[in-house]
Amino acid sequence: MTAVWRAPGRINLVGEHTDYNDGFVLPFALEVGCTATVTAGASGDDGWRVRSAQEAQPVTVPRTGLGDAPEVPDWSRYVLGALWLLTDRGVDVPPLAIEVDSDVPTGAGLSSSAALVCSVARAVDDQLGLGLDDDALFALTRDVENDAVGAPTGGMDQLVSLRGQEGHALFCDMRSHDTRPVPLDLAGQGLAVLVADTRAPHRHSDGEYGARRRGCEEAARRLGVPALRDVAVGDLDDALARLDDAELRRYVRHVVTEDDRVLSVVRLLDDDRLADIGPLLTASHASMRDDFQITVPEVDTAVDALLDAGALGARMTGGGFGGCVIGLVPEPDVERAGDAVRAAFADAAFTEPALFTARPARGAHRLPGGVRGGALGS
Ligand code: GLA
């Protein structure tokens, strides 16, 4: 018995560091992704065997919960995490062989980890016939990253990897986890999302991400609200006046205005005004650079070069401190805009960036070849 599922990486159009503040995000799923093949009873012994096409050594572990989990290479925690957590939740997970194969570049901020976690979770759910619903699958995949891997991320990446739809961005309310596909007809409007992977090393990204999250939670506590989502944009000045810490004020201003930008972008897309979202994307970048302070010189240089070359809007996407920049660019200008980024990087003696266009693809889906019982038997 085998189940094969593919789950994508993602780009976030707008809504950065709002997810763990119970706010709004608007990502879309990419065509690159991870394929997970899960076979019951094929590990050759009583344990779980994990093999990645991108890693030299397979990993085999005894079947346990998270508390008794052995030391394993980092990449395999994203795979085994689902099995450990399901075991903790009372599921008797049988011996399994899991193979994963990903074409999401790692370290680029395109959520190769969500693609890995989500493809495995969906294939395991399918193979074991668990029947997890949308909410349970999301909770499991987010918990793998938070609890089994130990990254304090906010869930956006897993939500869009599970639920993204072709031709659409996914408007997500990160408090209720309600999602709604919003049409993103780039080609129909003669536009492209040009992605510049800056290849900037992720300097201190782990520690800084956690520090931003703790700062936001502390600000919410001082303001007496459950999360920064609960500060309305009309009450922002009032909230800022009540905080005596300059750093926390900056964080609050970013999160509250960023939530508002997501809602504005969604309204424009609903009104079929894609070309008008550009200034909101650029404002989002300024907010990340000046208020949340999560950009780096490579990222700012790429944004400036894209805007100078005629992009309607440009911003860093993802957690920050490196990674990718996106530009909303008229199709005829894509090549020129890419050349402008390359030239600006050469001038600054930065590592050469990688450039590609992205379009919204579908979220996690089953691939043919997965057989439960049936023709291949069990
Ligand atoms: C990373 C995290 C997400 C989100 C973004 C920033 O991608 O995994 O949960 O917080 O950063 O928006």
Summarize the structure.
39% of the residues lie in helices and 22% in strands.
Give a description of the structure:
It is a single chain. With 378 residues, the chain is α+β, with helices and mostly antiparallel strands. It has two domains: 2-181 and 362-366, Ribosomal Protein S5, domain 2, CATH 3.30.230.10; 185-358, 2-Layer Sandwich (Alpha-Beta Plaits). 39% of the residues lie in helices and 22% in strands. It has ten helices and twelve strands. The chain has helices spanning 74-88, 112-128, 134-149, 156-163, 205-223, 236-241, 246-270, 278-291, 297-308, 334-347; strands at residues 2-14, 24-40, 48-52, 59-61, 96-102, 168-173, 179-183, 191-197, 313-317, 324-330, 354-358, 365-366. Strands 1, 2, 3, 4, 5, 6, 7 and 12 form an eight-stranded mixed sheet that branches. Strands 9-10-8-11 form a four-stranded antiparallel sheet. Residues 372-378 have low confidence and may be disordered. Bound molecules: alpha-D-galactopyranose.
